[in-house]
Amino acid sequence: MPFVKSKIVSLTLIILGLVFLFSFYHRSQGGSYFPLIPATKPSVPPSENSDYVWAHVPQSYPVRELSRLPQSIPKSIPIIQHSFPHESREERKVRIARLDTVKGNFTHAWQGYKTHAWGSDEVAPLSGRAQNPFGGWAATLVDALDSLWIMGLKDEFEDALQQVEKLDFTSCSLEELNVFETTIRYLGGLLAAYDVSGQKYPVLLRKAVEVGQMLYVAFDTPNRMPITRWRFHDALKGVPQEAGDGVLVAEIGSLTLEFTRLSQLTNDDRYFDAIQRIMNEFDSQQDQTKLPGMWPVVVNARTLNFHEYSGFTIGGMADSLYEYLPKQHILLGGGSQQYRKLYRDAMVPMKEHIFFRPMTKGADVLFPGDVSSDGQTPLSELHTEAKAQHLSCFAGGMVALGAKVFDLPEDLDVARKLVNGCLWGYETGRLGIMPEIIRTVACEDTHNCVWDEDRWHHEVNQAFPDDNGSVEDKIKTRRLAPGITKIDDGRYILRPEAIESVFVLYRITGDRSLAEKAWVMFETIVKHTITDIAHAGLNDCTVDDPPKQDRMESFWMAETLKYFYLIFADPHIVSLDEYVLNTEAHPLRRTV
Ligand SMILES: *[C@@H]1O[C@H](CO)[C@@H](O)[C@H](O)[C@H]1NC(C)=O
């Protein structure tokens, strides 16, 4: 009976681990945020498989002293969710009908994956082909596990676990693995499925540990900074590694939640230590950048220069670095003040230079833009590009969460305007969907901004200097809504960020108009993206008959449909007072 035996072995290891932990309990040192302990803790955490090859790849640059997970402080995190009033019978009826419709669409996509691509990373929603762009470890399946559980699809969930059992993280369909994507989708997906299902399915933690052990090898570099685009097969052979000299901050700066949760669940501090080293670099150089408080999009992880480059954004390539600051504070249960400081200092330049008010016919909203600094120009003259990415639509949720967690009530107003910005992006979209990237006219005065048709026309003309014809022609042929000067990228690839922020703000404020707007978004998106097999991204959502892509990214079922579902679910389901959601919408259980 191997099952029982392995339980006894695990139990013994847990006890040994606890004894060991307690022997170092009082050895904390002052001076740094996290006490350091010698790295001589048992290297085999409770659920680890000792035959696993990644566990035996020798570390060339072993850690000498580990940062230890800080003790969380009970009641240090303010209540986040709104106290929702009792709903009427009629309200409940509408809500449940919507919930079922979202679930019906989720099931439709799940069946398409199951029929055509079971065990592969993705199903192609037009051709039905199976595709493996994420290593070939069933990305869609792993990413959707917690959604299955949350939506009450328990049989499907248990079916999927048999596939999880078979996942082999010692072989990979790619030469180069994206460590960030692997962390947020696979590690986050497995940990969250383990947490939301009440920690009753040990295979999920076992597989999460396997992913963690694999990824931990990417940190085996001279300065312990991880390689973000990682040559999997070379690493398996033990080829010496060095961190990259041009690394995207989102990829190196948002591994914190998943690695922290893994340490919490295994009592193995190595994972937390691995990411804490990164965040200490961000911390120590936060004031030295060309936009102090924020970090450039690209940093040099090889030389540990995190301040030199010039481009600043909270959109793609940087986004989740910022998103994870308040979330990591919550997951650590207020046991550290470091993430409060990082967030607070980042918000100052963000409010001043990144958030801008677009000129609209009446809506007082905000978008996050981009800032480029040449390092010479004084900060007060920095130019904000009035560009809005769908990816940056997470910002409303981040600012709303930060407002609650760090008790900054005036920020809730900023959060509302950011959410309304993306809703404006949807409402002014040709089909009712916001494209990937749009350009707008930035108001000169945020507090006083009236619609100026000439200025809009002027900027449209500037955006298309080579087009013949009148400005009216340009607006017509380019399908520009009032206030929009150019559509840089007209795709809609089933992204979640706008509904994510609507969800967070709704759970925080209880504002029912948000749920109504969410419903309109849902119906519109589904109408244009549904296929016989599943749902498909749109190549251009600025035309009436949008051409579909043969692709459904795993975040559609992991994030977009989950957020739609949760908006219409009982607010106690995945309560923000019990869970922290990673950047792939995977709910990680809070310890306090
Ligand atoms: C999917 O959503 C659409 C739009 O609301 C709805 O009409 C349809 O019935 C849903 N599909 C399923 C299978 O529930």
From TrEMBL:
Top enzyme class: hydrolase
Enzyme Commission designation: 3.2.1.-
InterPro entries associated with the record: 6hp_glycosidase-like_sf (IPR012341), Glyco_hydro_47 (IPR001382), Glycosyl_Hydrolase_47 (IPR050749), Seven-hairpin_glycosidases (IPR036026)
Keyword Disulfide bond recorded: yes
Keyword Hydrolase recorded: yes
Pfam family, one: Glyco_hydro_47
Residues making up the signal peptide according to the UniProt record: none
Metabolic or biological pathway: Protein modification; protein glycosylation
Cofactor: Ca(2+)
Keywords linked to the UniProt accession: Disulfide bond, Glycosidase, Hydrolase
Family label: Belongs to the glycosyl hydrolase 47 family.
Name of the molecule in the record: alpha-1,2-Mannosidase
Organism: Paecilomyces lecythidis
Classification lineage: Eukaryota, Fungi, Dikarya, Ascomycota, Pezizomycotina
